[in-house]
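User: Is it possible to get a 3D structure for a protein together with its bound compound? The compound here is iron/sulfur cluster. I've pasted both below.
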Amino acid sequence: MDTKLDLLMQVIAQKFRRRLLAWYDAHARGLPWRANGDPYRVWLSEIMLQQTRVAAVIEHYQEFLRRFPTVEKLAAASEASVLAAWSGLGYYRRARMLHAAAKIIVREHANKFPNSEKQLRALPGIGRYTAAAIASIAFGEPAAVVDGNVERVLQRVAGKRLTREELWETATALLDQQRPGDFNQAMMELGAVICTPRAPACLTCPVIELCIARGELAATTKSAPQKKREIDYALNYRDGEGCVREVFLVQRPRNASTMAGMWELLELTHVNGTSVALFTLKHSITVTDFKVRVWRGSQPSHAKGKWIPLPRLPKVALTGLARKILRKAEML
Ligand code: SF4
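Assistant: Yes, that's possible. Here is the predicted structure of the complex:
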C-alpha cells in the first residue's frame, strides 16, 4: 500500500479505537460475565451466547454457575445433570461439547485453562470466534473476533459487503493491541445496541464520522420465513408413592439428530376430536413456529417412559418445550 494511504488508514483506525473504547467505557452493559475476566466464566458465557439472546442467557448462566462453579465441578458432573442445567437454552450439542472440553481441561491441562487462541481451538466446541473471544477477554491476547454483530458493523463502516476473509482482516487491523478484550466486546456491543440490523441508531453512534454507510447499507442477511406447525402432547400425571405427584415423560432416542437423550412429554399422533385441550402455547425452534396443544392423558399402555416425581424434575434433562409446558402446568 502507498505509504501516505497506509498512514491515513492508521490514523483512521486509531480514531476508531479511541472513540469506540471511550463509548464502551461509559456505556457498557453490566452483564454478569463481565464482572471479572475468569476464563471459565468467559468461556461459559460465549458458548451460551451462541445463537441465544443475552436476556435469555443471563438467568441460565447464573444458575449453571451455581451448579457448576468451576471447571473441575463441571468435568466431574454427569452428562444428564449438565443437560438438565442447560435445559431451556436449546442447541444441546453446545452443552455436550462444553462438558467434553471441561474433562479435557481437567485431565490434560491439570485444571489450568489453556491460555492461547491456538490451544483453545483444540478443545471441542471452540471455533475461531470463541477461541479469539476467550483469548482476548480472559488473557489479553490480541486476537480479533468476527460474529454477526461485528460483521454488520464492519460492512457498514466500510460501506460495502466484505468477504469472510476481508472481515477477519479488517477486524484484525482495527483491533486495539493494548485492550483487545475490551475492543472486541465493544464491537459486539455496538452491533447489539446501536448498529442494530433494522434500525441503526447512527445519531448516537460513537464512530459515525468514520462510517461510510451511516445506516444505509441494508441488513446483510434476510431471515427465512418461519414455517408453521401444530403439535399435540399428552400431560400424564398421577399421585405416586406417598401421594407425591408424578408426571410421565419419555426419553428422546440417543441417536436423535436434535436433543438426543433428553426428556419430553409424550407426543400424540392422534387426538380425539371431541376432547378439549388443557391449554395451548406457542413455541419456536429455529425456523418453525409451533402451536402446541396439551391434552390431559392417562397412563399410556404402549409408550416406554418413566413416571418422574415432580420434586425431581429440576434435575432432569428436559427439552425446552417440555420445561415450558410443565411450567405452564405449574408442575415446575
Ligand atoms: S454510523 Fe450507523 S451504520 Fe455506521 S456503525 Fe454507526 S450505527 Fe452502524
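The pocket of iron/sulfur cluster is lined by residues 153, 156-157, 194-195, 200, 202, 205, 207-208, 211, 213-215 (CB under 6 Å). The longest strand covers residues 227-239.
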